[in-house]
Design a protein that fits this description.
Chain A: It comes from Aliikangiella marina. The complex is a heterodimer. By secondary structure, chain A is an alpha/beta fold. The relative contact order of chain A is 0.11. Chain B is mainly α. The chains are: A alpha/beta, B mainly alpha.
């Protein structure tokens, strides 16, 4: 009897031991909570700064991606997900009022809670797609872009040194056309670079005062603001007097005087000091320090870390000069002049997103309160630039916002303590870069293939093969073969058809730089992918795609090749959306237009 | 069932200890029940069938429903033996005069109660094991071993107030009316307490009314183990169930002594 009872207990024990347990889950509960906060949700008990004022321990209702209201408490009849943010701060998505945008800038910015960037000089081609996508509510993977497109400068002036061919102004007659072209490019405002003849430092040729005045007049006629890059007091005065809406960069030659203050007050002009870049120019190495802050490291691409670590060429500007810049800003701020936060990323020592937080810190170190600094990167920008309700959490604004652990309104350094980011009401999972990952040893510069013996084998990597969108269910076709380039040398002839089928059609060749298709090659010590190319058509579009291990979204560089053989040098720095240390394949393909294509490739190599 | 047949060993115990009496009485009760398919088949199959239908096959939400309903149908499943073994069992034995014979026998009265409680517990265990196995195999229910054990524990201890209710019913009801009365209480109470489908599918008024029913609090206690209850204080549930237990034990005692005086 007792034995039977004992057996029954054993059986029960076995039974309960057998009953299945839940699989252990990776502990990412925290972000799971935020994942549910999309489009319509409530964040309660947060200290909410709406861009203008603070609402202590309040709730915010977001409905259909827009801010509906901020109130001490909010009913939840629709049963939206609620996040209790007690002790945390919610601020509008930040605006960086001075950047230069290309490549992955806008997604890098968003990764640090910067949801809008005001670009102050980039190519219209780089800007255009983003100027369109910013109007879309589903533009949730990157910051919104506003741009000046090409800046107005003199022949050989500042802005021409970057190797990009840009229209320049040498006489007043050209001004109307220039402004008109910028408006056609989609520019939101006009930017000019000006240095007065009277200024002591004359490091670049500058447009004349007359051209500056004409620019101001023409911009205003086209309903655009004119913002002017200056680096000294006298130029700043000229710019404001000429009718500029604001000046970019504080200046380091001296401290602002009452005359400038009076001019700016009357004109209701603003200043974007760009301390982050000025500090870098004057030898502060805050960028390097920032690159080491552990809270941020993981969220920065290797490219960004590199940008922070770069020094300016020696401008011979002492750190003491930077104090002038700080004093100027404090003086203007005290006189009631609007100060806006801008980093001038990605100039040496600065990078998108991160450096705006540094700019906030500099503003506070220069005498603004943390709240005033935050205002300079949010509400203040929305009142000056035509960005709509971006930078605010006012009713009706798209809910772009940042949840911050801590209290940035008393300690600005907390602004980097980002817990969650929403762009247009959608939770943005921050991109994390694996810092501990091991990479292959970096590839050395050298030839990949001269296409003399083989259309497949390469000196480095696992060879070249044909590649089309048939992989993804598309209908494009391609063949490759060696052909004679001239009497003796051969080249790789690629012919095929781009056909409708897959949403992103492609057809061309692909090169595996690593030892196999699964091992990413480390290109971090290389500077360029170089090849000779010629097209069958005039200005034939060609795309260079770089894929990172484990990702199906390539970084893309587009070029147009001519009918004659020409050498093309593609800077690998352009592919900053992906980690250049694990490139699994490099494709050179035709993507547009639909129909037959033919192109030739030769002397494919990596250069330092 | 062979192993449940009384053996000479069991009977020839010279000095019967109270434990032995309890064991033997429980054993014979069990034996009797296992020879009554009319009792054990419905009590075992009903909850299993319902759970398979509503919790697994026609589940509205395969992620949570099988787990939720496993707790509530298990509660439903253990209430059944408690009410029937006591309510119907005692009423029928009273009608047959078997109850009076037992009273007259030298067996202590407590053995009568204890044996029935043991039977209920054994039956509850069987129901629980079958339902848990169904849930784990077909419903994809995954709980931590501590949760499985705690849930089983809550279910078995939580069936005691229903034993009390059954006892009182068995002593008050006539043998021919007892099955009807018990069914009239068991099925509607199960439904209205949210044992068949989640309580929050009901209109608010019904949800409020469910607070009066012991089965509702029983279900909430079980659901607390798996974090799926409505979130009320655990002490409220315990207090209500304790109150039901006390009230019906008192009623049963009254009925018993009243009968004695006659």
């Amino acid at each position: 009897m007792k034995a039977k009872i004992f057996i029954i207990f054993i059986l029960l024990f076995v039974f309960f031991w057998w009953l299945p347990e839940p699989e252990e889950q990776v502990d990412n509960k925290k972000s799971d909570v935020f994942q549910t906060l999309n489009a319509s949700f409530i964040i309660s008990n947060a200290n909410i700064y709406d861009g203008f004022e603070m609402h202590k321990s309040s709730s915010i209702l977001v409905e259909n991606n827009r801010v509906i209201k901020i109130a001490p408490s909010i009913d939840n009849p629709s049963d939206y997900p609620v996040y209790n943010a007690a002790g945390k701060a919610l601020v509008p998505g930040l605006i960086d009022a001075h950047t230069h945008v290309w490549g992955g800038a806008l997604s890098q910015a968003l990764n640090f809670g910067v949801t809008t960037e005001l670009d102050m000089f980039t190519s219209p081609e780089s800007a255009k797609p983003h100027l369109i996508s910013r109007t879309r509510i589903d533009n949730t993977q990157q910051a919104d872009l506003f741009s000046a497109t090409i800046l107005a400068t003199a022949p050989g002036g500042h802005g021409t040194e970057y190797g990009m061919e840009i229209p320049v102004l040498s006489s007043v007659d050209q001004v109307a056309d220039f402004v008109n072209n910028r408006v056609n490019d989609g520019a939101d405002y006009i930017k000019a670079v000006y240095n007065a003849k009277q200024a002591k430092r004359q490091h670049f040729p500058s447009i004349s005062l007359e051209i500056l005045e004409a620019l101001a007049k023409e911009s205003s006629r086209q309903n655009k603001m004119l913002v002017v890059h200056v680096d000294n007091l006298i130029s700043a005065k000229h710019a404001i007097a000429a009718g500029a809406s604001g000046i970019i960069h504080s200046f380091m030659d001296t401290v602002a005087d009452d005359e400038l203050i009076e001019l700016m007050k009357q004109a209701e002009a603003f200043i974007i000091p760009t301390f982050a870049v000025q500090a870098s120019i004057s030898g502060h190495s805050r960028g390097k320090d920032l690159a080491e802050v552990s809270a941020m490291k993981a969220f920065m691409s290797p490219m960004q870390t590199q940008q922070l670590n770069v020094n300016f060429a020696n401008f011979g500007i002492p750190q003491s000069a930077f104090r002038n810049s700080q004093r100027t800003v404090l003086k203007l701020h005290k006189a009631g002049i609007v100060v806006l936060a801008g980093s001038d990323a990605p100039n040496p020592g600065t990078t998108h997103g991160v450096s705006l937080h540094d700019e906030l810190a500099w503003l506070v170190e220069s005498g603004l309160t943390p709240e005033q600094a935050l205002h300079a990167a949010t509400g203040a920008v929305s009142r000056v630039f035509p960005v709509g309700s971006r930078g605010t959490l006012q009713p009706g604004a798209l809910a772009s916002m940042v949840l911050i652990g801590g209290d940035p309104l008393s300690n600005i350094a907390d602004s980097l303590n980002i817990e969650a980011i929403w762009k247009n009401g959608v939770y943005h999972q921050r991109k994390v870069y694996d810092l501990d990952q091991r990479f292959e040893p970096p590839l050395a510069a050298g030839e990949i293939s001269r296409f003399e013996e083989s259309d497949e084998l390469t000196s480095v990597g696992a060879g070249i093969s044909e590649s089309t969108d048939q992989l993804a269910g598309g209908k494009s076709a391609v063949t490759k073969q060696l052909a004679m380039r001239d009497g003796q040398n051969r080249y790789l002839k690629v012919t095929g058809q781009v056909n409708k089928g897959f949403s992103y059609p492609w057809s061309g060749i692909t090169f595996v730089p690593g030892k196999s298709f699964s091992e990413g090659a480390n290109l971090s010590e290389l500077a360029y992918l170089v090849f000779d190319a010629k097209g069958e058509a005039h200005a034939q579009p060609l795309s260079v795609l770089l894929f990172q291990t484990g990702s199906f979204t390539p970084a893309v560089h587009q070029l147009k090749i001519s009918r004659e053989w020409k050498t093309y040098k593609i800077p690998l720095a352009e592919f900053e959306e992906i980690d250049i240390r694990q490139v699994v394949n490099i494709s050179i393909v035709a993507t547009t237009p639909f129909g037959d294509f033919e192109f030739g490739l030769d002397n494919l190599k990596f250069e330092k | 069932m062979d192993n449940l047949v009384l053996t000479a060993d069991d009977i020839n115990t010279k000095q019967p200890s109270i434990i032995n009496i309890y064991l033997m009485e429980s054993k014979s009760e069990l034996l009797r029940l296992f020879r009554t398919p009319g009792f054990y088949l419905p009590t075992l199959l009903f909850p299993m069938m319902f759970y398979l239908f509503f919790g697994v096959i026609f589940s509205m939400n395969p992620a949570t429903m099988p787990t939720y309903l496993l707790a509530t149908y298990s509660a439903f499943g253990v209430i059944g033996p408690a009410l029937f073994s006591f309510g119907v069992g005692i009423a029928v034995e009273r009608g047959q005069g078997w109850f009076d014979i037992k009273e007259a026998s030298p067996m202590p009265a407590s053995a009568y109660i204890i044996s029935r409680i043991s039977v209920t517990i054994v039956f509850s265990l069987v129901v629980i094991a079958l339902l848990f196995a169904l849930g784990a195999i077909f419903g994809g229910v995954r709980l931590y071993t501590t949760q499985w054990l705690l849930l089983a524990g809550v279910l078995i201890i939580g069936s005691l107030p229903f034993c009390a209710i059954g006892l009182a019913l068995g002593l008050y009801c006539k043998s021919n009316s007892a099955p009807a009365v018990v069914n009239l209480i068991y099925l509607p109470m199960g439904f209205l307490s949210g044992l068949w489908m989640p309580i929050n599918f009901f209109p608010q008024l019904m949800q409020d009314a469910a607070n009066l029913l012991p089965a509702y609090h029983f279900a909430q206690l079980s659901l607390k183990v798996i974090d799926m209850d409505v979130g009320a204080n655990i002490w409220i549930h315990l207090a209500v169930m304790l109150a039901y237990f006390a009230v019906f034990m008192t009623l049963a005692a009254k009925a018993y002594y009243k009968k004695d005086k006659q």
